[in-house]
């Protein structure tokens, strides 16, 4: 885990403000200290405190939903001492969540309390529209503002055309061609970032290299480019949290091999705002957008205003999101029922024991 601490800055360099201080009042009166989580692994976590970085053990009740467990970017309450312990997590402003890569019903929290999500899209190969739409849905759903960084622009024959192509997938999103090798676009991208910034994208997209360009130092570990295909290797294996020189905080994440959606209804509505707007113009409210009369979506397909790929992606991601969300909801309901059964069984055993004691 790599993190830096600026002497004298305390937690303000990591985003601590008056609002957080107010919400922390009861914890501070109990002798706890504030901290920001930089990484979690093996039942412990790396945190930043007012006096510097610490390694702390986790001392929290097991969460019914893993998404609510501490993750990078969380603000927390720490019990200080010889063996510091993280004992509470402050309410989140938002969290970036994907469906677990294992295809289980669990979700995975990637980063919490994020203000800006930089989506790294490499121009060294063919664009993947579906992946871009998935990343955008994750970002919008969390409440973060997405910014698309087209990395490795120096290897693209026509970066301008790439901007046009990506803009069709991301209406209203700022798109910045960048090159860490030449410095192209780095200042423009830096100006678009506010607050806590997370880097998201697939392995080899150049996230860590881009992060180093934003930081102005070689803080984040990077890998060499493979000669055969010009792609980078997967080098970031843990999330990292470091302050940006111009203010704000940067979270670097491992490459996302799978970008599954979970409970991302609002994110999908933002990503496919064009399809949603057309659907609202259909004659029938329950239009399935197939062969119904007065279907504005089918009319847009016929005129070329909407592409078949775009509509197919919209339908696919909606189905996937609905399926993953229903599985997660069913698991949580089952866990709730199991806890009720355990409590009921325990109470029955207690009452039976008392009855035996009375009779004896």
From TrEMBL:
Residues 104-259 form the CP-type G domain. It is found in: Cytoplasm. PROSITE patterns: ENGC_GTPASE (PS50936), G_CP (PS51721). One of its GO terms (cellular component) is cytoplasm. Zn(2+) binds at residues 282, 287, 289, 295. GO terms for molecular function: GTP binding; GTPase activity; metal ion binding; rRNA binding. Pfam families: RsgA_GTPase. Binds 1 zinc ion per subunit. GTP binds at residues 151-154, 201-209. It is an enzyme of class 3 (hydrolase). Residues 112-257 form the EngC GTPase domain. GO terms for biological process: ribosomal small subunit biogenesis. PANTHER family: SMALL RIBOSOMAL SUBUNIT BIOGENESIS GTPASE RSGA. Belongs to the TRAFAC class YlqF/YawG GTPase family. RsgA subfamily. This is Small ribosomal subunit biogenesis GTPase RsgA. It comes from Nonomuraea pusilla. The lineage of its organism: Bacteria, Bacillati, Actinomycetota, Actinomycetes, Streptosporangiales. The gene is rsgA.
């Amino acid at each position: 885990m790599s993190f830096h601490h600026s002497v004298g800055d305390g937690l303000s360099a990591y985003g601590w403000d008056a609002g957080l201080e107010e919400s922390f009042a009861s914890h501070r009166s109990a002798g706890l200290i504030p901290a920001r989580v930089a990484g979690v692994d093996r039942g412990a976590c790396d945190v930043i405190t007012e006096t510097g970085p610490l390694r702390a053990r986790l001392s929290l009740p097991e969460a019914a939903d893993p998404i609510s467990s501490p993750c990078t970017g969380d603000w927390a309450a720490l019990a200080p001492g010889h063996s510091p312990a993280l004992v509470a997590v402050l309410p989140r402003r938002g969290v970036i969540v994907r469906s677990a890569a294992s295809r289980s019903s669990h979700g995975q929290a990637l980063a919490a309390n994020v203000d800006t999500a930089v989506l790294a899209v490499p121009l060294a190969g063919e664009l993947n529209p579906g992946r871009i739409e998935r990343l955008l849905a994750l970002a919008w759903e969390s409440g973060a503002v997405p910014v698309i960084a087209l990395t490795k622009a120096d290897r693209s024959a026509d970066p301008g055309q790439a901007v046009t192509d990506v803009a069709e997938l991301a209406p209203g999103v700022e798109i910045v061609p960048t090159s860490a090798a030449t410095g192209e676009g780095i200042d423009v991208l830096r100006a678009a970032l506010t607050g806590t910034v997370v880097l998201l994208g697939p392995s080899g997209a150049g996230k860590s290299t881009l992060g180093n360009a934003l930081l102005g130092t070689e803080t984040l570990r990077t890998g060499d480019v493979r000669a055969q295909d010009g792609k980078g290797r997967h080098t970031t294996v843990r999330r990292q949290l470091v302050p940006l020189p111009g203010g704000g905080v940067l979270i670097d994440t491992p490459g996302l091999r799978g970008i599954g959606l979970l409970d991302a209804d609002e994110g999908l509505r933002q990503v496919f705002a064009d399809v949603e707007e057309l659907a609202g113009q259909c004659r029938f409210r329950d239009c399935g957008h197939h062969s119904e009369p007065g279907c504005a979506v089918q009319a847009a397909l016929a005129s070329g205003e909407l592409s078949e790929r775009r509509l197919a992606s919209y339908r696919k991601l909606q189905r996937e999101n609905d399926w993953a969300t229903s599985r997660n909801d069913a698991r949580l309901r089952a866990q709730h029922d199991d806890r009720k059964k355990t409590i009921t069984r325990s109470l029955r055993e207690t009452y039976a024991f008392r009855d035996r004691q009375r009779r004896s």
